[in-house]
UniProtKB/TrEMBL annotation:
Keyword Cytoplasm among UniProt keywords: yes
Chain's gene name: rnp2
Organism name: Halalkaliarchaeum desulfuricum
Name of protein: Ribonuclease P protein component 2
Predominant localisation class: cytoplasm
EC number(s) per entry: 3.1.26.5
């Protein structure tokens, strides 16, 4: 079978996506791809989802922070951004997802927008709600472990 001529081949754009969740969340590529397809299907419908053709091209997630490269057809970047914004939970873990940037090649996408997922994350003990608790610090925000799960806090909550 022959290749399509270059002018008939599909054109792609690559979205750099940042993912943030609680430190104990465990998210894999398959779960992210499934939520991406469900979000696109629910928002855009089956024809719109097929037009966008969202595919996770690269994925990394550890210690509550991650990033992914999502491939989308060239004319569907706006629809893809809207579908990605609809993701709020993956495998029962609450997540924050945002598009860091759009590029025409995977290499440019990785070099410009990925590898800068937040600062260093380190664990420490803090006084929160009149008790000593474990917390994970990222830049100026804290994820404090409570009896019911995690609570997001800032440095001002500890003063």
């Amino acid at each position: 079978m022959k290749h399509l001529p270059k002018h008939l081949q599909p054109r792609w754009r690559y979205l750099a996506v940042g993912i943030e969740s609680w430190p104990d969340a465990s998210i894999d590529r398959g779960a992210f791809q499934r939520e991406l397809w469900y979000a696109a299907g629910n928002l855009l419908g089956d024809p719109g989802s097929a037009d966008a053709d969202l595919t996770v091209f690269a994925f990394r997630f550890a210690d509550g922070e991650g990033e992914a490269v999502v491939r989308v057809r060239r004319g569907e970047v706006g629809s893809a951004r809207a579908a990605i914004a609809c993701i709020g939970e993956i495998d029962g873990a609450s997540v924050g997802v945002r598009v860091r940037g759009v590029s025409g090649t995977v290499r440019a996408c990785s070099e410009r927008y990925l590898g800068r997922a937040g600062g260093k994350t380190n664990q420490r003990d803090v006084a929160f709600a009149n008790e000593r608790r474990s917390a994970w610090k990222r830049d100026e925000s804290y994820d404090v472990r409570t009896d019911d799960g995690f609570v997001g806090a800032t440095g001002l909550d500890f003063e």
